[in-house]
Specification:
There is one protein chain. The protein is α/β, with parallel strands linked by helices. Helix content is 31%, strand content 19%. The strands form 2 sheets. It has a 6-stranded parallel β-sheet, sandwiched between helices. A 5-stranded parallel β-sheet has the order 3-2-1-4-5, with helices on both faces. β1, α1 and β2 form a beta-alpha-beta unit. The longest helix is centred in the first third of the chain and has 14 residues. The two termini are 17 Å apart. The structure holds NADP nicotinamide-adenine-dinucleotide phosphate.
Length: 251
């Protein structure tokens, strides 16, 4: 089977399937991060060349089940996966962590994209913690009056052409304590984040709630995978059932 990855969940699912010993798993990464985590299974890196390329791969590698376990914001590859599965009649399972839900005390402004997030900041200079990833950072050029603390997995190269930007290279999971320390020590007054879901990056939301800080939260695009499994266990069951395999191996 082929797992389209780039998430913690894809790695965990690959591990669980591999541990059974009766499946051959390949994990596919886009190749965006410079030093991707060591993966527990055979891994291929790089795009397929659009839907046609993915169709070719599915046929040539005789893939029995395609699993889309990519990040909820990776919309193009998910669309390609659905199209390619349909064209090749390959059974497909989607795994997507549920979005975070607003809780009492959250001060969220939900927006569609990075440009709208920047709009929400307004004209008066603010101290902004940006955790939305490298893609879309160009929107910050639209509002150079703010002071940005930008956290990414890999360095932002070249740095953005804005007068006040500091860069933090770090990878989750984070803790509420460490997130609170960043927010307080830098005098942050607003956070820009994606509603990625999952536990690894949720502590900043918890810290913001405790400190009564606003969060500008970029929403996911309307997903066609509304029937996606929300966790690794559910996805595992769906994959095994698509392959006609039992779960009695206890993994
Ligand atoms: P995207 O816009 O949906 O995909 C753009 C292109 O990248 C795809 O058309 C495909 O190229 C290639 N690609 C994407 N994921 C791939 C995979 N797992 N294996 C092989 N090729 C892949 O994706 P993105 O938003 O740039 O995200 C890229 C990767 O980073 C994804 O695997 C995702 O899980 C991970 N990620 C994304 C985010 C995010 O916020 N977007 C956050 C964390 C991790 P071809 O058309 O040539 O096949």
């Amino acid at each position: 089977m082929l797992i389209l990855g780039g998430t913690t969940e894809s790695r965990l699912l690959a591990q669980r399937l591999q541990a059974r010993g009766d499946t051959a798993v390949t994990l596919s990464l886009a190749g965006r991060t410079q030093a991707p985590m060591t993966q527990p299974v055979h891994t291929r890196i790089g795009g397929f060349g659009g839907v046609d390329g993915l169709v070719r791969y599915l046929i040539e590698a005789k893939i029995a089940c395609l699993i889309d376990a990519t990040h909820p914001f990776a919309a193009q590859i998910s669309k390609n996966a659905r199209d390619a599965a349909q064209r090749t009649h390959t059974p497909m399972v989607a795994l997507s962590r549920p979005a975070w839900k607003r809780q009492q005390g959250d001060i969220w402004t939900e927006v569609a994209d990075m440009e709208s997030a920047i709009d929400v900041l307004g004209e008066v200079p603010r101290r902004v913690f940006v955790t939305s990833g490298r893609q879309g950072l160009a929107a910050l050029l639209l509002a150079p009056q703010h002071h940005y603390w930008i956290r990414t997995v890999d360095r932002v190269e070249p740095p953005l052409n804005v007068p006040h930007a500091q860069y933090i290279v770090d990878v989750g999971p984070f803790t509420e304590e460490s997130e609170r320390a960043i927010l307080v020590s830098n005098g942050i007054d607003v956070i820009i984040a994606k509603n990625s879901g999952g536990a690894a990056t949720y502590p900043k939301i918890v810290a913001a709630r405790a400190l009564r800080l606003p969060v500008v939260l970029i929403q996911r695009k309307e997903s066609a995978a509304s029937d996606a499994a929300g966790d690794v266990d559910t996805a595992l069951h769906q994959v095994l059932s698509a392959l006609g395999l039992g779960i009695e191996r206890g993994v």
